């Protein structure tokens, strides 16, 4: 069997932290706070945790099993495991989904890149600064947003051109723990602001009267978005993994890290939001307004803000690396095409595809798709339709097509889990996961 031994993770910790880096990016740090703010606070967080543990975690295990079982990138993996069938559509679905996701994800990555540069040069935290105005200035400037988009994509192309083996893994071992440390520092400061308790209650005290069928769909989509499941990116990542690593335990570690980071993000953001009279439902710009406000109240705030933004930038990059990797590997798997050439071409295409989303706050602000800007419409399509659809297809593939013996072998390889754990996971994938996705989706359409 042809595999990818030339590009293996060197340690279990490296794989877990790199997978967490692929998952813990914009989903947990940027998107989670504003989605929570727009959908009722604590009740949304409760649903997010529930969906992450009961739906997202089993799917993450499934993607790990598919990838290591086939030891191929996503498109080739499904072809190998189900030859002469139409199941390879799942891998192709992931490639298309990752492309669309990158078209708006890299726009936000560009914002973070711009903020990082401004912070390092001491241009963000100033006396009487209006951080809402600063965010508006950046996002409403076509030149600034397009430069940020281009710069973010250049970094992605350079890294993916040289593969993902040692650079991402080594950096993840250092920078992911530092991200946790800096989040804890922000949380400690945020909860000491006057009026912070109101924000903590908003975030942690569920009010289920605020929950609608639409917010349930958003919570499900958020769990998929923040775990990076549904587009088979983790299939590609796990294809580089040795047999001595426990896939269920690795998936559980990634899921737990994701929940903890989301918790820290909420505790860092909402106390500040309420303390300074901001609106929880501010939208995508919430993080960029709150973080500078919090750091401005600390000694050496500009230094800490710069360090955090750089770490945040890395977390976003590790996520985008996984997306660009699945697209690049799909075009380089069979034929020995140049990774540099393919990654560069894809980067250029993504740049042009991302222009409408990057101009959604300026020249294309009046262009609406079902009442949403191009940025928001693409986000909705990816997070609430394509990601759940991909997860549903993966659940069906696991349930009815993939060899049960191979699944069981991969499930128990590298661990000593009780023999009854595999049947529990399999039944979750066969019944609970697809039923939940279908019911939540139909409920959002008002059908059930």
From TrEMBL:
Family matches, as PROSITE patterns: NA_NEUROTRAN_SYMP_1 (PS00610), NA_NEUROTRAN_SYMP_3 (PS50267)
Keyword Transmembrane: yes
UniProt-annotated location(s): Membrane
Keywords noted in UniProt: Membrane, Symport, Transmembrane, Transmembrane helix, Transport
Claim: Transport is one of the keywords in the record: yes
InterPro entries: Na/ntran_symport, SNS_sf, YocR/YhdH-like
Segments passing through the bilayer: 12-30, 42-66, 93-118, 143-162, 174-196, 216-235, 256-278, 298-321, 342-360, 380-400, 428-447
Membrane topology qualifier: Multi-pass membrane protein
Family: Belongs to the sodium:neurotransmitter symporter (SNF) (TC 2.A.22) family.
Xref: NCBIfam families: Na_transp (NF037979)
PANTHER family recorded: TRANSPORTER
Name under which the protein is recorded: Transporter
């Amino acid at each position: 069997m042809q595999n990818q031994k030339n590009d293996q993770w060197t340690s279990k910790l490296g794989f877990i932290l790199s997978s967490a880096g692929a998952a813990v990016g914009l989903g947990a740090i940027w998107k989670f706070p504003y989605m929570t703010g727009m959908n009722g606070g604590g009740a949304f967080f409760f649903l997010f945790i529930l969906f992450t543990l009961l739906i997202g975690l089993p799917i993450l295990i499934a993607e790990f099993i598919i990838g290591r079982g086939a030891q191929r990138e996503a498109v080739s993996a499904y072809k190998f495991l189900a030859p002469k069938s139409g199941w390879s559509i799942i891998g192709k679905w992931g490639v298309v989904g990752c492309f669309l996701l990158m078209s708006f994800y890299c726009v936000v990555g560009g914002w973070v890149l711009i903020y990082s540069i401004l912070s390092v040069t001491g241009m963000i935290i100033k006396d009487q600064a209006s951080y809402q105005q600063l965010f508006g200035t950046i996002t409403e400037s076509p030149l600034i947003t397009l430069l940020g988009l281009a710069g973010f994509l250049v970094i992605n192309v350079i890294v993916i051109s040289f593969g993902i083996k040692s650079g991402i893994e080594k950096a993840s071992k250092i920078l992911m723990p530092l991200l946790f440390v800096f989040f804890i520092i922000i949380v400690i400061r945020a909860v000491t602001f006057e009026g912070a308790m109101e924000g903590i209650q908003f975030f942690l005290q569920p009010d289920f009267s605020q929950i609608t069928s639409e917010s349930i769909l958003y919570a499900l989509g958020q769990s998929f978005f923040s775990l990076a499941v549904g587009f088979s990116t983790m299939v590609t990542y796990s294809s580089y993994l040795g047999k001595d690593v426990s896939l269920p335990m690795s998936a559980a570690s990634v899921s737990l890290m994701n929940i903890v980071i989301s918790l820290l993000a909420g505790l860092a953001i909402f106390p500040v939001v309420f303390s300074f009279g901001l609106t929880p439902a501010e939208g995508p710009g919430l993080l960029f307004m709150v973080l500078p406000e919090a750091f401005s109240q600390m000694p050496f705030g500009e230094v800490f803000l710069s360090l955090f933004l750089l770490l945040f930038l890395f977390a976003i990059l590790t996520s985008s690396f996984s997306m660009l990797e699945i697209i690049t590997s799909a075009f380089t798997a069979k034929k020995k095409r140049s990774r540099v050439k393919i990654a560069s071409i894809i980067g250029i295409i993504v740049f042009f595809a991302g222009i409408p989303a990057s101009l959604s706050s300026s020249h294309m602000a009046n262009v609406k798709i079902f009442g949403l800007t191009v940025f928001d419409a693409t986000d909705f399509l990816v997070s609430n339709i394509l990601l759940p659809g991909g997860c549903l297809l993966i659940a069906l593939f696991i349930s009815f097509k993939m060899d049960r013996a191979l699944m069981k072998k991969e499930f128990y390889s590298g661990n000593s889990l009780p023999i009854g754990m595999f049947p529990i996971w399999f039944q979750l994938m066969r019944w609970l996961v697809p039923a939940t996705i279908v019911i939540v989706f139909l409920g959002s359409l008002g059908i059930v």
